[in-house]
Amino acid sequence: MQALSFRRQMFLLLAERMNQERSIQALYHILTGKKSSQTIQDIKWYNVTYFFRMFPYWKETEFENDTNDLQYHRYIASHNNRVLITEQGRSQNDNFRTSYSWPPIYNGWLYGKSAAVFWKRTALFVQCLSQTLAGNRRFLPVFEDISVQHWLKKNWPKTIEEKQQTASVLFDELRELLGELDERDAFLIMNRLTGYHLTGQTWTQLSTRLQMSEDECHFRFLGSVHFLLEHADRSAVLRRAASGLEVWDVLTETTKKTLHYMNEGWGMERIARVRNLKRSTIEDHVVEIASEQTGFPIGDYVAKEDQNLILHHASALETKRLKVLKEAAQPKELDYFSIRLTLAFYGRDNHGQA
Fold this sequence. Notes:
Pfam families: HTH_40. This protein is 60% helix and 2% strand.
């Protein structure tokens, strides 16, 4: 069996989880982190938030080459524009799962964007603290992001004593936190940091030192950053680095506008008219909101008996395909919006791994 690159292996795992019900392009949007209503539905329905934004840099031409190669070597097939995983593909996944050690945390859905700002703040703070305590005031900052530098100035310790105390405490806190990670993951964090007479290593350098692909290095590094972000309250500096980041603010901007009108008591028809959008677009927004809000009033949109009927058939048939569920509910006439909304609402708490 041909050895797969890390990216291709992750695609193959995702393809299996999607239950042969989505297109290759749909999987691409999940892995690169396209924030659309359809992608949001997919990651919730199929419990694949773990894969969201795993490879935001994956170019479409490279993706096509990778998936074509997977088809050529018979790991996947395609039928009616849906990805089918072959027995060889399932066997490959089983072998990978039995030997691979996953990071304790990875959630591109919740932490995809906030983690980048969190890391910039943390890395710049460490660099400036290290250089300042060494007496060096002339150095190039690792990040020139104005908002990050503004955060640094606001949180910068004033006296030399405060700087020394902060450095000592931060060192102990990071050592304790990173000690809970796999050695390779802790290594990635420490060697991406820059300080006095110490330059953070490139992905190529880290890949060579760890004998791990750059894709996997990047994935495991992000998992470590997510871990630090999730445990930021255990460190004074990390807590400040995480402050103000909208970790849970995952709705798209256009959906937030619809939510505002919904909170005012407006119905979908009125919202669509005022916003000059199609009703189907507003329905997309409502489905997205239902997938995130625990207290969403789904009973206002779908009768309880209809919810139960949809969930029963989805479980019995092991499918999320709307057409199949609609036909299974006959003679009950269910519209696609009711099915989508129910699947979104009851799938909102899924954050499983591969």
